[in-house]
Write a structure and sequence with these properties.
binds zinc ion; two-stranded antiparallel sheet; alpha+beta
């Protein structure tokens, strides 16, 4: 598989972060404000959850 980046909008400062797919499951932090990009249940985070979050943010 090739490297894929996802764009996550920080829920705290609205900065767009480009996150490599491999790092999505590692609860990445915002590059601007340093807060977690994925809030909720970081321990139960999986690919499906991430996909839902991304879809929501695209909307
Ligand atoms: Zn931020």
């Amino acid at each position: 598989m090739s490297e894929q980046n996802s764009h996550l909008v920080c829920p705290h400062c609205q900065a767009t972060n480009r996150i490599p797919a491999a790092k999505l499951s590692a609860a990445p932090n915002c590059g601007k404000c340093g807060q977690p990009l994925l809030t909720g249940s970081p321990h139960e985070l999986n690919a499906q959850t991430v996909r839902k979050v991304i879809q929501k943010m695209r909307f």
